[in-house]
């Protein structure tokens, strides 16, 4: 192991380890880190030999990697963002970076196929890939040391992705965002994820990935994040004592089936051993649900820690939507906003917030029967100076605040008996 080098930081006034300077530079963008080279010769040397490399230009990347090779310097992380025109040069650069010891790679190749050498590496620890294609037909993944794998806006050819990723035994963090699964050049409408075992997985993130079924064994899961329009059939097997679920759902443009509420309740029920945060975006929703349609929803509702609604109450026609929602779940906290004048969603958000605060106004509550067991609401307004608990009568004062600014409102709900 090389001995650490003490070097003068600026004009000989302070001495810093080269590694310390490079650690400071690692928090900066590539351009910002380059600017620090003018501070002194030591900062210039530290920048020239930094272990974290970030490139947009393949020619600059090639020259830099060649220099590191000649100096026998190692690197830790390698970021490469290339346009479609430069993508053919990616594999050569990636191989050079890995030969120099890079174990943390972030690759963005616009519309090109990811070099398969990445998926056969026995040294990679972290791999992040975006805006490209992965062809798994006749291929295998054998990344025995991989702990973090992130795919964003990636088209995946072949129907064995989940089989292959499950062969990475050390995976702790897996993220899929905006990915499409294709089989023999035909886009599958949804991917069915069979039962797989990820004994070390701690964080699983699925964003805008159409998966109809999700059955996995994750004994030590700590965080599950899901966002999308469709609610998948879910079965997460875990023995984890404490874990969080962060769920964000964009309701479809038209909601006409009561089955949506049944799917939501079942989805939340399968996550009920976790601390659930539910975010529903309803700002484009049109629905034909009536209050009498949701009376037969099964009991009891699933307890969730927090609920955030966007554009929740456009009119009284949305009361049935809210009634069904509160029959599916009982949040301990509801987060909303009092929006300023001119905001697109001012009327909907502010009306919903006031509805929950005015718990004694029976006329409003009768149209949302699920609120009959709501016994107490504690309101906290978040502004620049912090937060303060206030009773619902002070909403009129909050209205004055919200005319020119956005005020975040957190409502703590206390419920009574069962529905």
General form:
elongated
β-strand percent reads: 25-35%
- What strand line-up does the widest sheet have? 3-4-5-6-8-10-14-16-18-20-22-23-26-24-25
Question: Rg, please?
Answer: 26 Å
Number of contiguous helices: 11
Which stretches are poorly predicted, pLDDT < 50 over at least 5 residues? Answer: 6-10, 184-190, 343-348, 360-364
Gap between N and C termini, in Å?
67 Å
Mind describing the biggest β-sheet? 15 strands, mixed
Determine the structural class based on helices, strands and strand pairing: alpha/beta
- Tell me how many strands there are: 26
Query: What is the mean predicted local confidence, pLDDT?
Result: 77
The quaternary organization reads as single chain
User: What's the helical proportion of residues?
Assistant: 10-25%
Short description:
By secondary structure, the chain is of the alpha/beta class.
Question: How would you describe what is shown here?
Answer:
The chain has 419 residues and is an alpha/beta fold. The chain contains 11 helices and 26 strands. It has helices spanning 18-26, 30-35, 41-48, 58-71, 90-99, 161-165, 259-270, 319-328, 346-357, 362-366, 395-401; strands at 6-8, 15-17, 52-55, 77-82, 104-109, 126-130, 133-135, 148-152, 155-157, 173-177, 180-183, 186-187, 191-197, 203-207, 211-217, 223-228, 233-237, 244-250, 254-255, 275-281, 286-287, 302-310, 329-338, 374-383, 386-390, 407-415. The strands form 5 sheets. Strands 3-4-5-6-8-10-14-16-18-20-22-23-26-24-25 form a 15-stranded mixed sheet. Strands 7-9-11-12 form a 4-stranded mixed sheet, with no helix packed on it. Helix 1 (18-26) packs across helix 3 (41-48) and helix 4 (58-71) runs parallel beside helix 5 (90-99). The chain is elongated, with a radius of gyration of 26 Å. The termini are far apart. Mean pLDDT is 77; it is low at 6-10, 184-190, 343-348 and 360-364.
């Amino acid at each position: 192991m090389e001995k650490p080098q003490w070097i003068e930081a600026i004009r000989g006034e302070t001495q810093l380890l080269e590694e310390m300077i490079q650690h400071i530079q690692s928090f900066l963008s590539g351009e910002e880190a380059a600017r620090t080279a003018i501070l002194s010769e030591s900062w210039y040397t530290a920048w020239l030999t930094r272990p974290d490399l970030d490139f947009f230009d393949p020619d600059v990347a090639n020259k830099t990697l060649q220099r590191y090779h000649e100096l026998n310097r190692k690197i830790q992380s390698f970021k490469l963002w290339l346009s479609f025109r430069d993508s053919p040069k990616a594999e050569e650069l990636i191989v050079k970076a890995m030969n120099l010891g890079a174990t943390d790679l972030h690759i963005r190749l616009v519309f090109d196929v990811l070099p398969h050498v990445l998926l056969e590496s026995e040294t990679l620890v972290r791999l992040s890939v975006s805006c490209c294609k992965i062809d798994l037909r006749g291929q295998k993944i054998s990344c025995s040391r991989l702990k973090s794998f992130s795919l964003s806006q990636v088209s995946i050819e072949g129907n064995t992705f989940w089989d292959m990723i499950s062969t990475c035994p050390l995976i702790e963090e897996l993220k899929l965002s905006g990915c499409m699964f294709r089989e023999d050049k035909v886009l599958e409408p949804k991917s069915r994820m069979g039962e797989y075992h990820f004994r070390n997985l701690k964080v699983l993130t699925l964003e805008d990935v159409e998966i109809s079924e999700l059955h996995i064994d994750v004994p030590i899961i700590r965080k599950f994040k899901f966002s999308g329009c469709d609610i998948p059939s879910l079965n997460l097997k875990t023995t984890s004592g404490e874990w969080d679920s962060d769920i964000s759902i964009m309701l479809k443009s038209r909601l006409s089936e009561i089955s949506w509420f049944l799917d939501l309740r079942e989805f939340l029920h399968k996550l009920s051993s976790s601390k659930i945060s539910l975010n529903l975006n309803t700002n484009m929703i049109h629905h034909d649900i009536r209050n009498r349609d949701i009376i037969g929803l099964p009991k009891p509702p699933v307890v969730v820690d927090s609920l955030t609604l966007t554009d929740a109450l456009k009119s009284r026609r949305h009361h049935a939507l809210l009634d069904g929602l509160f029959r599916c779940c009982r949040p301990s906290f509801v987060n909303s906003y009092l929006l300023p004048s001119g905001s697109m969603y001012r009327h909907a958000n502010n009306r919903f917030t006031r509805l929950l605060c005015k718990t004694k106004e029976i006329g409003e509550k009768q149209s949302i029967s699920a609120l009959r067991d709501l016994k107490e609401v504690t309101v906290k307004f978040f502004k620049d100076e912090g937060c303060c608990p206030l009773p619902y009568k002070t909403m009129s004062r909050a209205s004055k605040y919200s005319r020119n600014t956005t005020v975040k409102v957190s409502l703590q709900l206390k419920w009574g008996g069962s529905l």
